[in-house]
Amino acid sequence: DFKTDNYMLNVQKELMKILITPCAPDLLKTTWKIITCISPILSDENRQIVYTKLKSELIKSSTEESDCLLALAKIYPNEVYKLVLDEYVSQKYENVTLARTIFSALSPLLIVPELRDHIVEVLCVNLFNNHSSSIQLVVLETFNQILSTAKSPEIAKILYDEWKLVVKLIDLIKNSDVEGAQEIMYQASIIMNLIIKTLPN
After folding, report:
1. How far apart are CA 58 and CA 61, in angstroms?
2. Which of 96, 126, 173, 186 could form a disulfide with 130 if both were Cys (CB 3.0 to 4.6 A apart)?
3. How many CB atoms lie within 10 A of CB 133?
4. At 32, phi and psi to the nearest 5?
5. pLDDT (tens digit, 9 = 90+) per residue, 12-58?
6. 56 burial level (CB within 10 Å; 0-12, 13-18, 19+)
7. In angstroms, how far is CA 147 from the centroid of its own chain?
8. Global pTM?
9. Opening angle at CA 174, ends 168 and 180, nearest 5
10. Relative orientation angle of helices 2-20 and 44-56, to the nearest 10 degrees
């Protein structure tokens, strides 16, 4: 009813104040947990505030922020893509630390079908079209982690069928420079093994 709606809007308003105001870490963690719980009923205006905060802190996001991002992505995948992820999934990376952080932040979102292709694409671009062996290794490590802990069993099949990842990895091994080639070969072999194990005989 009206009173309940009005009460919830007031609660959301207070939560947004905490988000945009410096506060104690424990209070901020609790705030993110509450926002995650009420994500289905966040108003349009308040979602914009949350998206802005998530985007600005994606590089150093906490577990609570990551959980909130995933919760919102499941409900509003197109909004999350446009307002939070777009610039992060549309570039080649040169900084190893940044690449590792961003790819780790993106990986949990692979379980959201509407975001999956965008995330796999940025990983593949940085694996096959990036000439930095250090960045390639970061991507391979990310794929390794994804396939070792995947919550969505169809990811390996999609990588095999739609992205031809095994064939491309074989080509990558053949064309790798001497520098870093051994580690690339090792990581790629683990990934190919993880993918093939999920396929029918």
Report:
1. 5
2. 126
3. 16
4. -65, -40
5. 999 999 999 888 989 999 999 999 999 999 999 999 999 999 999 99
6. exposed
7. 14
8. 0.88
9. 100
10. 20
